[in-house]
Structures are given as structure tokens and as C-alpha cells.
Amino acid sequence: MIGRKKRSPQSVSGFLDPTLVKEVSPILSVPCSGFPAGVLPNPRLVSSTFHPHQDIPDGIATHMVAIMGQFLDHDITFTPEEEAEGCCCGSTEEACFPIKVNRNDPFFNRHKVGCLDFTRSMAFCEHFRRQHREQINGITAFVDASNVYGSTKARADSLRTLSDGLMKISTEGIYEMLPIINGSYHAGDTRAMENPALASMHTLFLREHNRIAEQLHNMEPHLDDEEIYQRTRRIVSAEMQNVVYGEEGYLSIVLGPVAMAQYDLVVSPNPSTYNPDQDPSISNVFATAAYRFGHSMIQGVVNMVNEATRALESEYALQDNFFSPAHYLSFNGAGMEKILGGLVNQQAQTSDRFVINDVTNHLFPEHGASFGSDLVARNIQRGRDHGLASYMAYREFCGLEPFCKWSQKPADISSANWDILMRLYKNPHDIDVFVGGLAERPSQDGLTGHTFQCIKSKQFQFLKYGDRYFFTHANQAGSFKPYQISNLLQRTLGDIICDNTRIESVRKNVFLVESPLKRCTDRNQLEIELFKGL
Description:
The protein is mostly helical.
């Protein structure tokens, strides 16, 4: 709240009305706070100008980094939106916050699109007269595989067979796929079918649950359905946490070993300690800006490779496959495995200010349409909807010097980036945090600059130490035994892929482009006998 900056409301034309500009409230101790609020640039204009399409494959990260980031995001954060009709048709509903498109827009002008639909995030306790509007998280914040199981009992129960601890499936050929409930594919998170790669990750962890549940049932046949289900869920949640925090895990690439050590994020056989005073809730700026860095790493064309030879067999354009199960189900059900094989071999786009056209011009198009919405413009608008402080405020919050004049270029932003920002924004302290965060050069050995690195590192520290049931914590109800933790620490995402697909080899670290290949016969197995009597 201290870092919140009052923003000027948008006018119907999509630009700010100078007569509506309010005085600026203090932002921490930023000296820029004495400056009057500038007229904030149109979000779509910022997107098309500062975040254009440019194909720059990353030399470090595989495409799995981008997809795992989305899969993990759907485990820890979901901001419900208000419902409204006709926001681009002059509706005066309070929930409407449409993004106007300039007449000279380089893409949408050709399609005669003058407005992008957008509704505000659902308000928290809006019936109380609060001094400011707050938003809510619609799912559990913990890294607990809630995207696999659901964040409510009703959701979880709907996905269970209620027999032998198993979860529901459907089949395509000989392959187990996500269950079809009421005519559509379902998972623990409602966004599972957003794209084929995300659906494939959901299917992978569904298979892992049923694989472990069958092993537990065979080892201890006297256990009832509930006992098997809950024990299996604990193991899969621990595997998920190790995929995120482990030595060859997701965060080791996203944050790098320096930040992992600095924020005590490294997991090891040495027991960790739960901190009851640590709030594990998701911060607004993490969910609404910093953790959206992965949007710049998405590939527009997704590779599908042979399970044995890793030869390219097919590919699909992302813009044509939002909410489409066609490639997920292709090859008589093997498509899902070919997608996973492609993710661990294909390079991601570089984490920078550039974002592919598939999500800036073609996001979620209506059936038959040659255009969609703009993910980057939505990110910027969402930050303003949530009242996020400016980039300079979060920069100072993370220990960097804020700059109040265009003549004071930060060392970690290139001259080219700074010049474009100067053309877009009236003052440096008006820069939206999503935009400024992507403008920075990567910090140390992580994928993003210092500001986003700081916000992400703090959040994952909160999620680890504020989680009573984090798998390496000792002296808690249900804490794993040291020998069980040692086995779980060996389980990588590559091992889970090997256990649940016909893929014959994966990278030792599936998140690293140059990681050597290893045969799936050499995978680290879950030693189920260690979990007898869990």
C-alpha cells in the first residue's frame, strides 16, 4: 500500500484526460514522487512500440522454461475478472476498462479494430468503503500441485474415481489423457486447455499421480481409496516442489544459483524450518507484472518430435491453437508426448522486451477471426487496474537507485530501450512496472533484470518458508523422513517425463538447451518402498 501510486483514469478515447489527473501520493522515499503524474500512454501503443515481435532464440533456456512457468503460475495464482458485456460498445458498467486502439495501429488498423475488450479484476470486499481497491487470488498460493488436484474440495472430488486413490482419465488410442467431464477436458485448474503444451503438462502430472497410486495400492492393498489418494498427493506435491526448487529445477535457471543461495531457496537433505510468521500469499506485483516475464519467452511455432529419434515430426502455430485439443490428441494420442519432447529440445525465446505476434496480435481470437487480443497491452492495463506502483518505485524497493529525469539513464537499461521509453512516457516515474522490468538487462545469472529478479526471489522465498508442508521442512505434522527427502530430491521433471511417456531420452536438465542427453533407462526412480506407511 505504501508503494501504491495513484494513477490517472482513462478517458473514453483511450488517452488520459489531463483535467482528471490527480495529485501523486508518496511512493516509498522516491524523490520522483514530487513530480506531477504524467499522462500515461495507451497500453496498446506501448505494446506495439516497445514490445514488438522479434525472433531471438535463447541460448540457455529450453521452451520448457516458458511452459513450466505457465504451469507453475496456474498452481499459485489466479485473479478472477469481473463480467461485463459491451465494454467496447460504449457500456458504462463499472467493470469495463477497455483498451482503445489508435487509428494508426500497425496491425489492428488493417482489421478495423478500434478497441480491445477488457474488464477489471474482481474487487475484494467491495461492499466495504475501503481507501483503495484490492484484488484476490482465486486458488491456493502454495506450490502444492493444486493445478493438478484443484484448490477446492468440490473440484478435487470431481476429478477422482473414488477407487484405489486414482484420478479420472479419458483415453485416446492407447494413451491416458485428461478426463472429459460434462463434455470438456478438465484438470485441477480451469485454464488447463489454454494451449496444447499446457494441457500436456497437466496430463503428465495426472499420469504421475495414477502411476504412484497404483504402486502404493500394490504395496499396501489394505489401504482405502482416501488413504492412497492423500498419500499419493503428498508425494506428487513434493515432486512438484522439487521440480521448482531442486538442483536441476525451474528456479535454478530462472533465478540462477546466486539468487537461489542469497534467498535460501536451495533444497538439500539438510532439513529446512517452517516460519509461522511468514506470509505465503502471492504479492500483487508478482502476479500482475514480475511473473509475467515468461510471456516474452513463448515460441510462436511449437515443435513436436519423435519419442525415440527426437526428429521433428510436426509443428503448430500457437495463434491457431488456443483452447484447441487437436495437436494434444494428434497421432492417435501420442501428440501430447511429442509436444513434451519438443519442449525439452526447442529453444525458448530470449527473456527480453520482445514478444511474439501470436500473443500481441492474435491472443484468443474468435472462431474464424484473423486477429485476437494483445497479451502485453492486457498486462499493462491490468497493472493499472490493480494500482501497481510505478517501475521506479519497485526499483527502489529492490535496492536500486530510482531515476527521475530522462537524462539519468539507469546503467542496467540500454540506450536504445531508454530512448523508446522516453518517447512513450512523459516522466521516468510513469513507466509501468511490467514494461520497465522487461527493459532491464539480465541480472547476474538469472533470466531477468534486478527488479523482477528481486520480486520473484522474495515471492518464492515466502512460498517456501511460509508453507508448513514444504517437503524439506522438519518437525511438522506429516514431515517426510530424511531418506524419503533424499529420494524426492533426485526426482527431476525429466524423470517424471520418462516414467509417464514413451520418450526414450531427455536432457539431464530439461530446462537447459545445452544439457547433455540421458537415456530414460538411467532415470532416477521413485523408490516407492521408502514411502510404505507414509
